[in-house]
User: What shape does this take?
Amino acid sequence: MPNAINIAAYAAKRALANVDKGNLLQDMLGATGELDGQTLAIVNTWFQRATDTANGRSNSKEGLIIHCSDAYLNLQKLDEGIYVDPTNGARVAVPIKREGNKATNACGNELQAFAYTWLNGAAIVLCSDGPVGALRNLAGNSIESWRTSGDLKATSAATDKGIDYFNSFLSYKILHELMHATSLTQFNGVLPDKDPNGNVVGELYGYHQITNNPVGTGANRAPPPSANNLQHNADSFALLGVGWYLPQYAYVRGQLNRLRAANRPPDSYPNQSPASDPSPL
Assistant: This one.
C-alpha cells in the first residue's frame, strides 16, 4: 500500500509544479498540453483526495480497508453479482459475466481486484482465488526500486510495452482501485460520454483503449475518447501516476524515454511525506 500512496502523493504535488516532460498528461487525460492548468488542477484534486482516502483523512469515518481475499463477503444475488459485507452491511456489486462461470465468490476467478464504498468507509479487495487475481498474478517488483537504481531502457518489456509495462505491478493495481475507492461517482465502471455511435462506454484499460491508438503510434493517430471520459477513468490516473513517479523518464506516445539528469523533475516535492504504513503492498 505505501507504494500506491507515495505515487498518488507525488502526482498531486507534481501537478502543481509545471513540469513539461513527455505527453502523458495529454494521452491519459486529454489535456491540451502538459501545462494545461485546468487538467493539472483535476489531477491535483483527485490524487490529493486519493492520498487522503488511503491515509484515513477523508470524510469517511472508518477510512480505507484492504482485503486480501473475498471470502468474507456473503452472496446475495449471483445472477446480478451482488454480495454483502457482513461487517457493515454494504451492498457490493461486482462486474462479472457469469455465463459458463461456476464460481460463486465475488472475484469469480476472473477479477484482479475491485473496490466498493459505503456511508462511512471504503474497501479494496485484492483477489487471490484464481490465476488472474492480483495477489497471484501481478509481479512483486517494486516501482520504488526503479526510482533510485537500474535502467528501464535496458528492460525489454519496459521498452516493448511502454507505459503498459506497469500493468504487471501490484502497486499500480492498488492505485487503480484506490481511485475507485476515493469516489465511485467520479470513477465509475461506466464513463459519462457515449461513443460516436451512441453506445455506452465502459471503463478503459491500458494505453491502447485510453488513447484509441497502440503504443508508439505517431502519424495518422485515431481520435481519442473524450477528455471528459478520460478524466473519469481510473486507469488513466493510475498510469499517469506511475509514469510521473519515475522522474528520470518521460513517456511520449506511450513510449519510454530517459531524461538527462539536468532535465529531470525532482525526486520529491516540499511537504511530501512518505507513507508510513509498514505493510508490503
User: Anything to note?
Assistant: The radius of gyration is 18 Å.
